[in-house]
Design a protein that fits this description.
The model has no long low-confidence stretch (mean pLDDT 96). The protein folds into 2 domains: 256 residues, Aldehyde Dehydrogenase, Chain A, domain 1 (3-Layer(aba) Sandwich); 184 residues, Aldehyde Dehydrogenase, Chain A, domain 2. By secondary structure, it is α/β, with parallel strands linked by helices. Helix 15 links the parallel strand 18 and strand 19. The chain starts with a helix and ends in a 14-residue tail after the last strand. A 7-stranded mixed beta sheet has the order 14-15-16-13-12-18-19, sandwiched between helices. A 6-stranded mixed beta sheet has the order 9-8-7-10-11-21, with helices on both faces. A 3-stranded mixed beta sheet has the order 1-5-4, with helices on one face. 40% of the residues lie in helices and 20% in strands. Bound molecules: NADPH dihydro-nicotinamide-adenine-dinucleotide phosphate. NADPH dihydro-nicotinamide-adenine-dinucleotide phosphate binds next to helix 8 and helix 9. The site of NADPH dihydro-nicotinamide-adenine-dinucleotide phosphate has 31 residues, from helix 8 and helix 9.
């Protein structure tokens, strides 16, 4: 790969438009820091509106190019299968790029990127099986059917925490349907998306089908989402940014999928298998340093087992191995940015001020071996209340409040007492209770006796302030296509065209 870990170091990375690499030229550049050391390791182009315009124009032209719009679905599937094979071949280089970029442990980026190979294969397999339906109407000799068409140019905006994984949940279905794409990764983590463009080219996708612009969200990102040539915005990021994007795209009537933040409840009932529940709760909030949208940052524990569970949670939290993300034994790496570190500290301060009791962590990790990296200790607060600020706002860091509850009704009310609705987890051996909770919990995903479990077949997406639209499975084919209804009258009868037939 041209953009492997060595070649990226110290470089200004190009953007990718219409199958070509464009160097930064004399325009502004932004630095990208390595979270494990706090040092700059490459720079990106801060794209201007003109460069964004060029990328959208390339994507629009590709939509109409015979080598993309006139090929069969099976040929399109073939390119996606080839892309999947290339991802498999280069998985370790891509994983290392992401770990360097966002500090996520190499074992996890490796697992995520290895999975992408299957993800693209799944959607490649779907590309030539996207069927509409034939719908009977109350009129003889009329054929009424639907078909899925490409939407057009899709802008994919991704956050810093899992750049390629989040790009792919939109990109794979987009390619399967026949859309063209302009991607804008987070300014903090652009390297893997730029490298990925190389694989797109090698897989034989026509020029302009996939383009990458880089730069600041408020600049390049805003120019992209508000561009009149974009048919849909697939945005993953924070709820406040999502709200701004919804307002912008609403103005142009552009469609949007918004995959936003969360504040997931993790409920442990007294009859749960406590070892499994504690393991799930600790991994659920400390995996990726809590920088996952589904982080289980509100841990509700039934009163009768509260003290015992607190002890187990604390013991497990203290055992989490925090260290360099490339070390095989590490379970939690640094936070992705210095800003994140400051934000987490601020939440810890507010939790203390509101009377929560710190039982472990609560501080930056400094000195050897952490150096100037953005490390924060796994942090738990006891005696937390659901209405405390750190239990209501998304922290995106390794911090959870442990909240006691006395009844099923009370915990469901508290679990739902949040503006978010992305995911929830619960641990119980009582199936009836589990299903009652599933019925009552207001979130897009509910996990029972497991947590943070995702699959390419399972629709994922939030309720409430966690956004709208679905990733994965056939739901995402629906989200990235437009449904056309076709009515063919082969009766040969002259119709009374002055009266619309509503039957
Ligand atoms: P942000 O909302 O800050 O940014 C997300 C992306 O949007 C970045 O590429 C950012 O660019 C860009 N952006 C910012 N402002 C604009 C704008 N006005 N127009 C267009 N693009 C813009 O999120 P983070 O990167 O901080 O990621 C963390 C958030 O992502 C968390 O809230 C998390 O819950 C959420 N998330 C949700 C997931 C889900 O599936 N629901 C999955 C993963 C994360 P730049 O970085 O350059 O500013």
């Amino acid at each position: 790969m041209k953009f492997d870990i060595k070649s990226v170091h110290g470089q200004g990375l190009p953007i990718f438009i219409n199958g070509e690499w464009l160097d930064a030229g004399s325009g502004a550049q932004l630095p990208s820091l390595e979270p494990a050391t706090g040092r700059e390791w490459y720079r990106i182009t801060d794209c201007t509106p003109a460069e964004v315009d060029q990328a959208v124009a390339a994507a629009q032209a590709a939509l109409k190019a015979p080598e993309w719009c006139d090929i069969t679905q099976t040929q399109r599937a073939g390119m996606i299968f080839d892309l999947a094979a290339l991802i498999k071949e280069h998985a370790s280089e891509l994983a290392l790029l992401e770990t360097r970029d966002n500090g996520k442990i190499l074992r996890e980026t490796t697992a995520q990127i290895s999975y992408l190979h299957d993800y693209y294969r799944y959607f490649a397999g779907m590309a030539d099986k996207i069927e509409g339906s034939t719908i009977p109407v109350n009129k003889p000799q009329v054929l009424n059917f639907t078909r899925h068409e490409p939407l057009g140019v899709v802008a994919i905006i991704t956050p810093f925490n899992s750049p390629l994984n989040i790009l792919s949940v939109s990109l794979a279905p987009c390619l399967a349907v026949g859309n063209t794409i302009v991607a804008k990764p987070s300014e903090h983590t652009s390297a893997s998306t730029i490298a990925f463009a190389e694989l797109i080219k090698a897989a034989g996708f026509p020029d302009g089908v996939f383009n990458v612009v880089t730069g600041a969200g408020a600049g390049a990102g805003q120019s992209l989402i508000s561009h009149s040539g974009v048919s849909k915005v697939a945005f993953t990021g924070g709820s406040d940014t999502g709200r701004r994007i919804a307002a912008s795209v609403g103005d142009c009537l552009t469609q949007a999928n918004l995959e936003l933040g969360g504040k997931s409840p993790h409920i442990i009932f007294a009859d749960a298998d406590l070892d499994r529940a504690v393991n799930g709760a600790v991994a659920g909030v400390f995996a990726s340093g809590g920088q996952t949208c589904v982080a289980g940052s509100r841990i509700f524990v039934e009163e009768s087992i509260y003290e015992k569970t607190l002890e187990q949670l604390k013991t497990s939290a203290l055992e989490v191995v925090v260290g360099h993300p490339e070390e095989p034994a590490t379970q939690m790496g640094p936070l992705a940015t210095r800003d994140q570190l400051g934000k987490v500290e601020e939440f810890v301060r507010s939790a203390k001020e509101e009377g929560a009791r710190l039982i472990c962590g609560g501080n930056r990790l400094e000195g050897s071996p952490y150096g100037d990296g953005f490390y924060f200790a796994p942090t738990l607060f006891a005696n937390a209340r659901n209405d405390m600020r750190f239990c209501q706002e998304e922290i995106f860091g390794p911090v959870a409040g442990v909240i006691p509850f006395s009844s099923e009704a009370e915990v469901i009310a508290q679990a739902n007492d949040t503006r978010f609705g992305l995911s929830a987890g619960l641990w119980t051996r009582d199936l009836d209770r589990a299903m009652r909770c599933v019925d009552s919990i207001d979130s897009g995903t509910v996990w029972v006796n497991t947590f943070r479990s995702a699959a390419m077949m399972s629709p994922m997406g939030g309720f409430k302030d966690s956004g709208y639209g679905k990733h994965n499975g056939f739901a995402s084919i629906r989200d990235f296509s437009r449904l056309k209804n076709v009515v063919v009258d082969y009766s040969g009868q002259k119709q009374d065209a002055f009266v619309v037939k509503l039957k």
